[in-house]
Amino acid sequence: MEFIDLKKQYALIEKSVRKRISAVLEHANFIMGPEVKELEEKLSRYVGTRHCLTCASGTDALLLALMAKNVGPGDAIFTTPFSFIATAEVITLLGATPVFVDIDERTYNIDPIQLEATIESLSKGHVPSPGTPSNLKPRGIIPVDLFGLPADYDAINNIAHKYGLFVLEDAAQSFGAEYKGGKACSLAEIAAASFFPAKPLGCYGDGGALFIDDDSLFEILSSLRVHGKGADKYDNVRIGINGRLDTLQAAILLEKMEIFPGEIEKRQRIASRYIDGLRNIIQTPIIPSGYSSAWAQFTVSTERRTDLLNRLKEKNIPTAVYYPKPLHLQTAFGFLHYGKGSLPVSEKASQEVFSLPMSPYLEEKDQDSVIETISGCFIKKG
Ligand SMILES: *Cc1c(COP(=O)(O)O)cnc(C)c1O
To answer: Which residues contact 145 (CB under 8 A, 6 or more apart)?
Structure first.
């Protein structure tokens, strides 16, 4: 059993993917070839935004969005500590300061009530940790759609509007999810997706995309993606990066998009099956009404995590812990001096969650053995 089964998927699409790859090898436009534009049109149509701009990774997507918003020293960006390092790393790379806000214990996403309280307290001069500089200017919010479940965008966008902040949706895990009728990647002013192979829509290397409605911000992002180009590539009007998506990866993603909607339905069925089999035994994911998850991960929670992980390992069932250490306690953010206990819900989650094998191609018999093994851990011996 694989944790995420990419080989079964490849077996299904091998012919069409090879054909797409051959076409690129023959036309030889490896940088910004026609597949890139074709993909951007396909993705923006799927998500429902005016524009899509592909780029080299999900991390670059987040970075480009913050660069387009002129984020820099003295700026505070509010985000969740229960995420992958990239979410907060890009803030620090630009000289700005991440301000961590604890999560909702049910959804693992940033808690809008604590978000507003943190913004209020920062504007009254209270820093959230001893290493956070004073007099930061609140600029933006990066909610993360963790494990594929969108954050609470109605609440978050209202708060952003009230305090004049931008919202950047970190949709690295949620491409294909929905919130109140809208698709993930269309839920905030700007969204960043990742096409890292293990994400719901993955390529065969690194890749990412930005989604946006605003025309002028889209122009700025397009320029930033190619070294801050102006009218042509040897006319540079701002400092940018080399952040393009390879034509080959675009070609692969075009074929993967053909089967993607069906894969989301399969993930949905597999997740429901897990929930039916496990909900009386262990804490299963909570999907509030009006939300749907892209099921990047199927994550359960228990105080007996070590025990269960050992038992699953004995049965050769692969598992993963996302994330064993919240960002505010990572060595890389040691300079902010957040203490243990400062963001207790995230800290508790990092001690108790783990993720089960999940992919559109997980077989029922394998899923049954996962469910049986977990059930077995809760049956009293003797
Ligand atoms: C994967 C991921 C990223 C980074 O994406 P890459 O494509 O690997 O750069 C950012 N944020 C979250 C929440 C992620 O899961």
So the answer is: 109, 151, 169, 170, 171, 172, 173, 174, 177, 184, 294
Joined together, the tokens standing for residue 369 give 């053995």
Q: Is any atom of ligand 1 closer than 6 Å to the C-beta of 359?
A: no
Sign of CA dihedral 46, 51, 54, 55: negative
Confidence of residue 91 (pLDDT cuts 50, 70, 90): very high
Helix (H) / strand (E) element for 60: namely helix 58-68
Ligand 1 near 84 CB (within 6 A): yes
Expressed in angstroms and rounded, the spacing between residue 280 Cα and the centre of ligand 1 is 32
Q: Which residue has the tokens 């540079």?
A: 236
Does the pLDDT of residue 380 top 90, yes or no? no
Which pair of tokens denotes residue 240?
A: 């940018």
With CA atoms as reference, report the closest residue to 61 among 175, 233, 200, 209. 209
Mean pLDDT over 143-149 rounds to 98
Residue 381 in this model has a pLDDT that exceeds 60:
no
